[in-house]
Amino acid sequence: MTTFQTTDLAKMRADAKISQEEMATHLGISQSQVSRYEQDPDNTPLGVAKAWVKYCGDISTKQGLEYGAPYRDIATQIKLMNDYAETAPAPLDDALFKCAPTADSFVREVRNLGRKPRVAACGRFDQGKSRLANTLMGSEALPTGYQPATAIISLVRHVGDRPSWIREEVWIMRKGFDLNQANDERHCNEYKIVAGSFDTLRKYGTHNDNRPADADQCFAALVFVDSPFLLGCDLLDLPGYGHSPDDHTKAELAHSLADILIYTSAAQGFMDQQDLQFVNALLKQLPTHEAKDDTLPVLRNVFFVATMARQDHADLEDIITKASLRAYTHLLEDLQARSELIGRPISFTDFRARFFTYLVDDPSRRKAFEEDLADLLSTVCPVQVRGRLDRWVVELKNSTKAYCDVWTARLIEALENRDRAQGSLEMLERAEPLRHRRVGSKTERILSTIAANKSASIEHIKADLSKLVTPDYVEKCIRERYEDKKDAQQLAGSYLIDHIQNKLNSFLAERAQELVPDINDILADYQAAGTSAGGAELGVISVPFNMKGVFLGALAATGTAGAMAAWAAATAASAEVGSAMLLPGVASYLAGIGATAGGVVSTGSLIAALGGPITLVIGLGVLLGLAAYALFGSSWQSRLAKKICETLKEQHFLEMLTKHSEKYWDDTRHSFQKGMAATEAAFQDNLGNLRKLVNATSREEMTAMISKVEATRDFFGGIPWRLGN
Ligand SMILES: Nc1nc2c(ncn2[C@@H]2O[C@H](COP(=O)(O)OP(=O)(O)OP(=O)(O)O)[C@@H](O)[C@H]2O)c(=O)[nH]1
Ligand SMILES: [Mg+2]
């Protein structure tokens, strides 16, 4: 077995951007000799060829992957928006103008929506994740090693993206730090343990003997590297799976942050059963960019990479073909769910196309991967980011204009018809007790539906899902799915776990969807109460009061929203979302849960929006035990089935599902109550302000207010945003 092919010495040299002259100097031979070797590689001495390959590898490793600066344009525009925000008029009274955007929130949202995609390197420990990330960057910033090395999540960004208040290369952050807030000065300072150089990262971020005493508290690192690769993305280097539960938890936490996934697994033992289990869970959370763009190949943001690919080409082909076939069969349910989400089938050929090889030492072994990744980062992603920004800014301009126009009209009316305004306010106040009762009883009803859903989910697990953990059912699955005993031993357990979780997720998604009309109904009550009272139109003093926006804003601030995320996704997809997008954080919250404005909501996308779908990667060690379990004789299927059931029982699998679904509905209740509290508070604020407006505001104040609203309209209407193509 040769370790590399010499047939393309010239290409390898050109790919590494080395001239013939430089190669000649490096090898201590003449340039014409270099040229002769390139024309006749088969007659190149092995020693020369080895040195050649190594030098190409070393050089291109130092350079890192280059593909231009795809965000230069976007960065310029963001900077322009920053400058423009400096010219903003004084913000409107934020109690009165609840849904008006501010220049600050505008700039923050533009930054959030315009951020580069995050590329996560994940996989079991010691598979070459950090080394691959370093090679892409042309840097030695991330620690690598033969032992389990990486102990914390590193968010690696370009030095040009370093906030002015960070001076060091590395900040080490405590547990509880939110990676989504890596630009927030207060949050970062609150969680910082220590700052320093790449050595600090080595000291605190790896499993080494000299870890400082407080290293256990470390969770993540903010790392800044001057690398051309980081001009098109941020990089997440994760601890490996399978080493310690703590590493594992960190890695899992980071999954939901990834836009692009590089799944690494060494070519030797490529994509084993543990890998497949992790991929099961990963695929459920990975954004479906191709859903919005038919021209994008499916699964474009996933790379399955056979690292340390030293085997010869034919062997590698064989390894990858076998592994991809096995993975395709194993992941079929998840791939089908994804295919429903994107509205296109995912064929084996599509899936196979996402497999690549990687070897640091030989550029030809990583060329296809690097080209695909470079293309994704330089052309596909920037266009998507640009589109997202363009749509949002246009929406913002339109809705702000509409919002301000209604306000101005109302203010003028109120000014001219003081008496009628007074009368309307009295009507509104008289209607308050009735409104309270209505909202109160509807709230109670929704809370009891949530409680009933919680019991129904528990019951579903007990009555239906438990039947799937019986020897008969499992045996049937095994017989249907596996001919090969070894395959069955390795994969049946994890297939079953995933299969049952998928069923539970669909159940939850359906229940979540049923809540949507009830939430809309109660919010419609609020909306109506702002414009009419006791059946009569309020007319003059009614104001645009965006309940859905307020509610969404509260969810955005809550985090795990349980089934409320399904309502958010449905709202995002509906036509009325418009002015809700004005509220700080709403647009990026919706983008974060994969909900698209004006999109279609399928049960599939609801599952994706469930706000932390139930993806347990349980009992790995235990499932490994299954593979080692001796199975002789003809009825191995039935004995394996029994063993799997026993194992899942010992692992309290059903109890874990129950716990997760209980938490899901508890989160739902919590976020619903938060949303309601925010809505009620906003309504009361609004009422108080109306009172002030009608009773106490002088003509001069009123006129001043009108011109402030007009100034805001003109500021937002005049945003000098240049649309992309
Ligand atoms: N020569 C060579 N060594 C490699 C290659 N990929 C990985 N290695 C080595 O394999 C070891 C493990 O690589 P790491 O990058 O630390 O692996 P990891 O997946 O980040 O491991 P954890 O951080 O422990 O999860 C290191 O010593 C690497 O230098 C490769 O392509 N060529
Ligand atoms: Mg590592």
What features would you describe in this structure?
- The chain has 725 residues and is α/β, with parallel strands linked by helices.
- Among the domains are: 9-63, 434 Repressor (Amino-terminal Domain) (Orthogonal Bundle); 388-715, no CATH class.
- It contains 25 helices and 11 strands.
- Strands 4-3-5-2-6-1-7-8-9 form a 9-stranded mixed beta sheet, sandwiched between helices. Strands 10-11 form a two-stranded antiparallel ribbon.
- β7 (260-266), α11 and β8 form a beta-alpha-beta unit.
- α11 packs parallel to α17 (485-531).
- The longest helix has 50 residues, at 367-416.
- The two termini are 51 Å apart.
- Magnesium ion binds at residues 129-130, 144, 149-150.
How do the strands and helices of this protein lay out in sequence?
Blueprint: H1 9-15, H2 20-27, H3 31-39, H4 46-63, H5 72-86, H6 103-113, E1 118-122, H7 129-137, E2 153-158, E3 170-174, H8 185-191, E4 192-196, H9 198-205, E5 218-225, E6 234-237, H10 245-255, E7 260-266, H11 273-285, E8 302-307, H12 313-342, H13 348-352, E9 355-357, H14 367-416, H15 418-463, H16 471-481, H17 485-531, E10 532-533, E11 536-537, H18 547-558, H19 564-573, H20 586-592, H21 603-608, H22 620-628, H23 636-650, H24 653-696, H25 699-717
Parallel strand pairs: 1-6, 1-7, 2-5, 7-8, 8-9
Antiparallel strand pairs: 2-6, 3-4, 3-5, 10-11
Helix pairs in contact: 1-4, 2-3, 4-7, 5-6, 11-12, 11-17, 12-17, 14-25, 15-17, 15-24, 16-23, 17-19, 17-22, 17-23, 17-24, 18-24
This protein binds guanosine-5'-triphosphate (GTP) and magnesium ion.
